Amino acid sequence: METNIETTLRIALQKKGRLHDDSMGLMKESGIKFNIGNGRLVAQSTGFPIEALFLRDDDIPQSVFDGVADLGVVGENEYAEKGYELDIVKRLGFSKCRLSLAIPKSEHYTGVGWFNGKKIATSYPEILKKFFAEKKIQADIHEIAGSVEIAPGIGLADAIFDIVSSGSTLVANSLKEVAVVMKSEALLVANKNLDEEKRALLEQMLFRFDAVQAANSNKYVLLNAPNEKVKNIVDILPGMKSPTVLPLAEAGWSSIHSVINEDKFWEVIDQLKENGAQGILIIPIEKMIL
Ligand SMILES: Nc1ncnc2c1ncn2[C@@H]1O[C@H](COP(=O)(O)OP(=O)(O)OP(=O)(O)O)[C@@H](O)[C@H]1O
Ligand SMILES: O=P(O)(O)OC[C@H]1O[C@H](OP(=O)(O)OP(=O)(O)O)[C@H](O)[C@@H]1O
Ligand SMILES: [Mg+2]
C-alpha cells in the first residue's frame, strides 16, 4: 500500500545563546511551537509541518548548504564568515550588531594603515582577511573562539575584530572601536535547491512571519479631536488605508483610529497635540495581515 508522506520543512535554529530566544519567539508568534525538552536536538512542531534542529550557530550555514536543514536562522556575521551560498529569504531584524576593529584606547589611531604589521585577535578571520585584502593591509590574523576582547590586555594581540553592540564590553576592556567592517542582523536563510512543495510551505511560513513583523513594528492609535481639526489630523496619520473617524457622544468631537509605524508615531506626536488631539492611546497589534 502506498503511504502518503507529507512534506515537512526542517529549520536549523541556535541551540542556546543570543539568537535562540528571538528565533523561538518568532516561531511561537507565528503559531509554530516546538516540543523541546530533555536536551533533544530535533523537535517536532505543532501548528505547522516543520521540525527544528538545534545546533551551534557556527554550524547552521553548512547544515543548510548541505541540505541537512532546508532553512536556518543565523547571524549575518556567521553567514558571511562561513561563505556558503544560500538564499537570504528574509532579514529578521533581531540580534542587530556590528563587526568592528578595536584597539587599546591609549593608542593613537591613524586610519586603517595602523593595522599594518599588527596582530589581530578574532573569531571572524575570513571576513577580516577580505577586508584587509581590499584595503591592502598586511596583518597577522590570530583566530580565537571567544573572549576576544581580553586578547590585547593579556599581550596576545595588538587589536581585536569582534562583535560590538552597546560597546560596553570594549569599554570594560579599555578598547576603542575604530572601524566598522560590517553590520549584522539575524537572517532567515534557505537551501538554494528546495523543491516546489517545500517552497510552497516556506511561502506559507513567510506569510506568518510578515504578519508578525508588521504587527510588531506598528501600533493601533486611538485619539479624540475637535471636529474642525479632524482633517488636519487625518493628514498627519498615514493609516493602512484611511483612518476611521467616529463621532463621540460629546457634540463637536470625534474619535480617530489608525495604524501607524511605531517610529513614525514619535515623529508626529507633537503635530497631533498641536492640532488638539487628546486622550491618545497607543495599543499593540497582535497580528497584521496587509
Ligand atoms: N551583543 C550582541 N548584541 C546583538 N547581537 C549579538 C551580540 N552578540 C552576538 N550577537 C549575534 O548573535 C549571534 C549569536 O551570538 P552568541 O553569543 O549566542 O554566539 P555563540 O557564542 O557563537 O553561540 P554558539 O554556542 O551557538 O556557537 C552572533 O553571531 C551575532 O549575530
Ligand atoms: O558591545 P556589547 O553590547 O558589549 O556586546 C558585545 C559582546 O557581546 C557578545 O558577547 P556575549 O555577551 O554574547 O558573550 P559571549 O558570546 O562571550 O558568551 C560579543 O561577543 C561581544 O563580546
Ligand atoms: Mg558560535
Automatic annotation (TrEMBL):
Compartment(s) of residence: Cytoplasm
Membrane-crossing ranges are none
* ATP phosphoribosyltransferase catalytic domain location: 56-209
Q: How would you summarize its activity regulation? A: Feedback inhibited by histidine.
Name the SUPFAM superfamilies on file.
GlnB-like (SSF54913), Periplasmic binding protein-like II (SSF53850)
Q: Which reaction does it catalyse?
A: 1-(5-phospho-beta-D-ribosyl)-ATP + diphosphate = 5-phospho-alpha-D-ribose 1-diphosphate + ATP
Q: Which domain of life is it from?
A: Bacteria
Please give the GO cellular component terms listed in this UniProt entry: cytoplasm
Q: Which UniProt keywords apply?
A: Amino-acid biosynthesis, ATP-binding, Cytoplasm, Glycosyltransferase, Histidine biosynthesis, Magnesium, Metal-binding, Nucleotide-binding, Transferase
EC main class here is transferase
Metabolic or biological pathway:
Amino-acid biosynthesis; L-histidine biosynthesis; L-histidine from 5-phospho-alpha-D-ribose 1-diphosphate: step 1/9
Co-factor requirement: Mg(2+)
GO molecular function terms attached to this record: ATP binding; ATP phosphoribosyltransferase activity; magnesium ion binding
Family assignment from sequence similarity: Belongs to the ATP phosphoribosyltransferase family. Long subfamily.
Recorded protein name is ATP phosphoribosyltransferase
